[in-house]
Design the sequence.
């Protein structure tokens, strides 16, 4: 349910469970974290995307009820994405919800299709967000807007998300992956060491 394609230094990682809104099981999260860790050796760019019309609805409902919602695998995944020494791009093919926020927030860039919704309903569900997510979210949108999402439970649409800085670009539905590849062009032509060195220079 996780597809990986490697081409000229670009790793494209696709969450492929569209019949379940790309909801994530623990096994899928472990696989995503492993891929992000392995990207350190070869990838110059890693693109995260989803199959179908939703990027990810977050945790698989059955596994969430069994404890996945509070499992540390979410934090390990977002930490692995953040630590990857390559350029990381979230190509958001649709709505981003719940725990799936973590991996997108940990990416360097986020591009989205129109009409996507962004929400993280931890307050309503009685959970705390993943430990690193509030700081990453606040760094992008500011503390008040982070509280709008995390504490007030607001669903943010693409235009507002773009204005807030939660996403970096909105593109036509058919162009989101193509846009990610376009953004990858310069980095993919360099060595992994050069890409990593430049990434370390940017706070």
Sequence:
């Amino acid at each position: 349910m996780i597809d990986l394609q490697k081409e000229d230094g670009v790793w494209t990682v696709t969450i492929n469970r569209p019949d379940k809104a790309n909801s994530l099981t623990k096994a899928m999260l472990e696989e995503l974290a492993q891929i992000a860790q392995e990207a350190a050796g070869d990838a110059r760019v890693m693109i995260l995307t989803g199959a179908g019309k939703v990027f990810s609805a977050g945790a698989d409902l059955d596994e969430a009820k069994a404890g996945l919602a509070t499992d540390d695998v979410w934090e390990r995944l977002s930490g692995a994405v953040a630590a990857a020494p390559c350029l990381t791009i979230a190509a958001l093919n649709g709505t981003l919800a719940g725990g799936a926020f973590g991996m997108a927030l940990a990416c360097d860039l986020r591009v989205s299709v129109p009409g996507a919704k962004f929400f993280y309903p931890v307050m309503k569900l009685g959970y705390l967000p993943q430990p690193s997510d509030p700081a990453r979210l606040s760094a992008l949108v500011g503390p008040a807007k982070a509280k709008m999402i995390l504490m007030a439970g607001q669903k943010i649409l693409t235009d507002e998300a773009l204005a807030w800085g939660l996403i970096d670009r909105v593109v036509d539905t058919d162009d989101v992956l193509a846009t990610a590849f376009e953004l990858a062009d310069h980095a993919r032509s360099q060595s992994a060491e050069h890409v990593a060195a430049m990434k370390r220079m940017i706070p």
Q: What stands out?
A: The chain is about 40% helix and 20% strand. The chain has a mean pLDDT of 96. The two ends are 33 Å apart (CA to CA). The chain has one domain: 2-201.
